Amino acid sequence: MLRFASNDEAKGWEELCRQAAANTRAAFDAIEAEPCPTPPTGRQHPLKGGLSIDVYGGKMLDQWQYEVTAGGRFWYLVDHDMNICWIKYAGTGHPKATD
C-alpha cells in the first residue's frame, strides 16, 4: 500500500500523474506488486549512501526510488511490518538531494 508522508508528496504525485499518467500508473502497480524487487530494476532501485535509510514514524526504513520519467521520480520508505510504502519525495524534476 502506498501512502504519502506529507501533502507535498501528494502534490508532487499529482504533478507526475499530469505529466506522465501511464508511467505513474505503472510505477504504482510495480510498487504494489513488489516494493523491493530482487534484483532491482532499471527504474526501481534502493537509494545509496546516506539516502539508503531514513526514519519515519520512529522506525529506520529502507529508502527506494522509482524513476517515472527521465527526471520525474519518487522516493519511498518500505515498512515491511505495516505493509506500507511511505512516499517521501515525488516530483517531475531530479531531487536536489542527489545533486
Tell me what the structure shows:
The chain is of the alpha+beta class. The chain has helices at 7-19, 21-33; strands spanning 2-4, 44-46, 53-56, 59-67, 73-79, 84-91. Strands 1, 2, 3, 4, 5 and 6 form a 6-stranded mixed β-sheet that branches. The longest helix has 13 residues, at 7-19. It is globular.
Measure the end-to-end span. 29 Å
Oligomer: single chain
| Topology order in helix (H) and strand (E) letters | EHHEEEEE
Structural class label: alpha+beta
Query: Which whole number gives the mean pLDDT?
Result: 94
For the report, how would you describe the main beta sheet? 6 strands, mixed
Gross morphology is globular
Task: Supply Rg.
Answer: 12 Å
Question: What would you say about this model in short?
Answer:
The protein is α+β, with helices and mostly antiparallel strands. The chain has 2 helices and 6 strands, in the order E-H-H-E-E-E-E-E.
Structural key phrases:
34% strand; alpha+beta; 99 residues
List the helices and strands and how they pair.
Elements: E1 2-4, H1 7-19, H2 21-33, E2 44-46, E3 53-56, E4 59-67, E5 73-79, E6 84-91
Parallel strand pairs: 1-6
Antiparallel strand pairs: 2-4, 3-4, 4-5, 5-6
Helix pairs in contact: 1-2
